[in-house]
Structure prediction request, 78 residues.
Amino acid sequence: MGERPPLSSARATRPHPRLAHGRNEDAERDCDAVLRLDAKSVKGLFRRGQARVALQKLELAQSGTSVVHLVISRDPRR
Prediction:
């Protein structure tokens, strides 16, 4: 059998359908949970930014985008 993805990776996919259905607060909370497990989760950071833009939390979304760029620049494999 193949390896299961890490819990943080599996949880990082959960916000995507929530965003698609306009459940932005739920998506933001899911991303916060992912980031508590893995603070460098690019999916978690990116999707939390998407949720925050939809919630008009633009300053928070912008700061999260800066973190994504920093994480990718330090470890391009993420």
